[in-house]
Amino acid sequence: MLLDLTLADGDGLDVLARLRAEDQMPPQTIALTGHDDDEVRQRCIDAGCTGVMIKPVPIARLLALVQSP
Length: 69
Fold this sequence. Notes:
By secondary structure, the protein is of the alpha/beta class. 42% of the residues lie in helices and 22% in strands. It is built from 3 helices and 5 strands; from the N terminus they run βββαβαβα. The chain has helices at residues 12-21, 38-47, 59-67; strands at residues 2-4, 6-7, 10-11, 30-33, 51-54. It has a 3-stranded parallel sheet, covered by helices on one side. Strand 4, helix 2 (38-47) and strand 5 form a beta-alpha-beta unit. The protein is globular. The model has no long low-confidence stretch (mean pLDDT 92).
């Protein structure tokens, strides 16, 4: 799952918390954020994200990450 942290109606990590509570966690979650700092990265990892990408994300890099096993 690609998960933007900045959503119109809340925080993307809140979405991930709801999925976890409902036992619906996807096998992989890549967080997309415009905040390039260690605290945000750590929050994402602690929430269960398997990767964090800083926006804007080069399309080739995003495709490579999504297509990797």
